[in-house]
């Protein structure tokens, strides 16, 4: 399996996004290089796709399959694409505040600490459905990491499409997210135009 080993801060700097978008509370000490280089339309579209892949931790083959699925869905393709990425279980765990970053959320899921509707789920790319209840497994709650999560848990940061239950460290997907509720700095139309070439 391919693994992205590029340091997160370096990737944030090259893509021009704030580290806070991916859950990092660090800032790069390096000054950005001044370049007057004109970027082509293709270059702009490619950068938007790279941003989306980096933020959600998805590689090209899987990202392309999300695009193909979004294209077949009714509605706007770009919005459908972002909606599918938001519905990934690792992203939902991150949105619930059970992990500091999406990478950490992915690890929590793949290590089997998350249950959906009472059943263990260890596939980070699985998509949640409406009324799915996402929670930390009972057997994992004694883990030192999750004890820390319990103490610092803040349900106020959860998006409107997820109903959080802070005392039980769980959340229910009440509906699918709208575009204006997805706070990632991505121009999804540029991605659609790139794949439509």
TrEMBL record:
Similarity comment: Belongs to the universal ribosomal protein uS4 family.
Keywords: Ribonucleoprotein, Ribosomal protein, RNA-binding, rRNA-binding
Oligomer and partners: Part of the 30S ribosomal subunit. Contacts protein S5. The interaction surface between S4 and S5 is involved in control of translational fidelity.
Gene: rpsD
GO MF term list: rRNA binding; structural constituent of ribosome
UniProt function note: With S5 and S12 plays an important role in translational accuracy. One of the primary rRNA binding proteins, it binds directly to 16S rRNA where it nucleates assembly of the body of the 30S subunit.
Domain RNA-binding S4: 87-151
Example GO BP: ribosomal small subunit biogenesis
GO CC, one annotated term: small ribosomal subunit
Chain ranges of the Small ribosomal subunit protein uS4 N-terminal domain: 3-86
Biological source species: Propionispira arboris
Protein name: Small ribosomal subunit protein uS4
């Amino acid at each position: 399996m391919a693994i992205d080993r590029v340091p997160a801060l370096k990737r944030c700097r090259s893509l021009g996004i704030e580290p806070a978008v991916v859950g990092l509370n660090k800032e790069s000490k390096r000054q950005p290089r001044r370049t007057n280089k004109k970027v082509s339309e293709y270059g702009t579209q490619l950068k938007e796709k790279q941003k989306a892949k980096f933020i959600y931790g998805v590689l090209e083959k899987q990202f392309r399959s999300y695009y193909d699925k979004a294209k077949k869905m009714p509605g706007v393709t770009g919005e459908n694409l972002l909606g599918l990425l938001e519905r990934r279980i690792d992203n939902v765990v991150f949105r619930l505040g059970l992990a500091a970053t999406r990478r950490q959320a992915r690890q929590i899921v793949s290590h089997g600490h998350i249950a959906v509707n009472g059943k263990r789920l260890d596939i980070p790319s699985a998509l949640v459905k409406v009324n799915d209840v996402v929670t930390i497994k009972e057997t994992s709650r004694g883990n030192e990491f999750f004890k820390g999560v319990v103490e610092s848990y803040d349900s106020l940061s959860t998006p409107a499409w997820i109903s959080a239950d802070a005392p039980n460290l769980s959340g229910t997907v009440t509906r699918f997210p709208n575009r204006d509720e997805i706070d990632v700095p991505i121009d999804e139309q540029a991605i659609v135009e790139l794949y439509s070439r």
